[in-house]
Amino acid sequence: xxxxxxxxxxxxxxxxxxxxxxxxxxxxxxxxxxxxxxxxxxxxxxxxxxxxxxxxxxxxxxxxxxxxxxxxxxxxxxxxxxxxxxxxxxxxxxxxxxxxxxxxxxxxxxxxxxxxxxxxxxxxxxxxxxxxxxxxxxxxxxxxxxxxxxxxxxxxxxxxxxxxxxxxxxxxxxxxxxxxxxxxxxxxxxxxxxxxxxxxxxxxxxxxxxxxxxxxxxxxxxxxxxxxxxxxxxxxxxxxxxxxxxxxxxxxxxxxxxxxxxxx
Length: 264
Ligand SMILES: [Zn+2]
What we know:
Elements: E1 2-6, E2 9-18, E3 21-30, E4 33-35, H1 43-52, E5 57-59, H2 65-68, H3 71-77, E6 82-84, H4 89-93, H5 100-106, E7 115-116, E8 120-122, E9 127-132, E10 141-145, E11 150-152, E12 165-166, H6 171-182, E13 188-191, E14 195-197, H7 200-223, H8 228-235, H9 241-245, E15 250-251, H10 252-260
Helix pairs in contact: 6-7, 8-10
């Protein structure tokens, strides 16, 4: 685990390795606000860090297990509120039902009781705007710090040109959310997987442009009468490890389906 500081932010970057794949997930601490908790797979390491970090509230960008894994532990150990978008509350109240590869990669996520976040959040020095940004997950939020011009974007960015989507992802909604994000005046962007990005607007715009042009291409091919399989072969010919690991939960097919709404 690597701890970095950036002005008054602390970032803990946790590497998670499975077979030949390595993924990273970050938690951020700023002004007494912990943003996401890390996965339970690294529970001991993260718990010892969190026992040292001082925070009086926790904000979860969404309910996924790599962001909420330690939330049940925090709830037991510390008397602090855990906030999530209202659409995530019921998902967190029961133990997460995860496919095997996610359980192996990130570890399980037990039940806990979060509270609904409102439109703004107050910390000692800052006022935060809470922006509902579904697409990757229905309860996904971004946190905007107007004083600093900083955006904490959860899993909205991750990478600029994804070739595959998860079954639960929705590309048109993602496009809408990225557009919403760009209506805010921000510089630095804090990603939960790609880390701290100084020219934040540029990378969000890149991703938005890529998704919009790919959406156009998919719709064009679909209107020409091409099947999902044909579109996939033309636009996304390469197979990725994650497509195999996930037994199809992550696949270019879901990218196409979420746009054409044709399930074949
Ligand atoms: Zn996620």
